[in-house]
């Protein structure tokens, strides 16, 4: 193999310095987008996000005693 090809392959495989930072940024960006979408969906409902959370917690706390009896 020629020296030029070896140099290109070495650069491709060794230049991953910023990859972790970019991956972390993309995860944060996706989580933020999901949070915004969920807030927009629940804000358009009649009872809002507060009513949804209250219903959710009520269902969870009503379900827990049924498991242990």
In terms of per-residue confidence, which ranges show pLDDT below 50 for 5 or more consecutive residues? none
Shape type = elongated
The number of helical elements comes to 3
Q: How many angstroms does the end-to-end distance come to?
A: 72 Å
Mean pLDDT across every amino acid position: 77
Q: Per DSSP, what share of the residues sits in E-state strands of 2 or more residues? A: under 5%
**Count of all domains:** 1
The percent of residues in helical segments reads over 70%
Task: State the major sheet.
Answer: none
Q: Give the radius of gyration.
A: 25 Å
State the total count of DSSP E strands: 0
Question: If you had to describe this structure to a student in words, what would you say it looks like?
Answer:
- With 69 residues, the protein is an all-alpha fold.
- The protein has one domain (16-68).
- It is built from three helices and no strands.
- It has helices at residues 3-14, 19-43, 48-68.
């Amino acid at each position: 193999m020629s020296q030029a090809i070896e140099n290109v392959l070495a650069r491709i495989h060794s230049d991953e310095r910023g990859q972790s930072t970019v991956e972390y940024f993309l995860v944060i960006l996706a989580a933020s987008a999901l949070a915004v979408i969920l807030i927009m969906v629940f804000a358009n409902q009649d009872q809002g996000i507060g009513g949804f959370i209250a219903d959710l917690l009520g269902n969870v706390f009503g379900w827990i005693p049924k498991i242990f009896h």
